[in-house]
Amino acid sequence: GHNRVPLWTPEDWVELAISFKAQGCNLVVVGAEYDQSYWEKYVRNVFDSRGLAVHNFIGRLEIGSTFALLKSARMLVSYQCGLGIVSHYLGVPVAMWWRPDGNSIHPDRMVAFDERMADGWCNPKHRDKYLALIYQRESPRDIITTIDGKGWLK
What's phi and psi for 95, nearest 5 deg? Predict the structure, then answer.
């Protein structure tokens, strides 16, 4: 529901991934077992067609192992979820999407977030390691430019 329509496409992910690979990053995807169907149906083939190797741990790790993996990451790009929030509190740089005000995550009823939630929960100690994103406001190029400016992948 958070990316319903979709607001962010597999091609957008590929653009980010190409930039991260160029900076020496390994690409890793994590999530719950139910996230695997989205990866398989929409994203994996686009990555494969571009020759982008990805380590897929979706549904394969217990939560403690997932947190250990995230703690060792150079950064995390996420939609609004617990993995992004926990990673932020672990001091890992995080870029995380939120839906725009009034844009429901549910197709038939209004379930929306106040955009102030995008960073109102952040630990001030790690604020410089967090990038709040609102779907459709930042392009992949905008995100890459900001991450490069912050030096998160150096």
Answer: -115, 125
Q: Along the chain (154 residues), what's the average pLDDT of each consecutive run of 10 residues?
A: 79 95 96 94 95 97 97 95 96 94 85 89 96 94 96 93
Query: Which of 94, 84, 86, 30 lies closest to 62, judged by CA?
Result: 30
Record the pTM: 0.91
* Distance, CA of 64 to CA of 60 (rounded, Å): 12
Distances (CA, A) of 131 to 23, 41, 85, 126: 19, 28, 12, 11
- CA proximity to 118, closest of 140, 100, 102: 100
The rounded distance, in Å, linking the Cα atoms of 3 and 112 is 12
Q: What are phi and psi of 56, to 5 degrees?
A: -100, 110
For the chain, how long is the longest CA-to-CA vector? 44
Confidence at residue 1, expressed as pLDDT on a 0 to 100 scale = 65
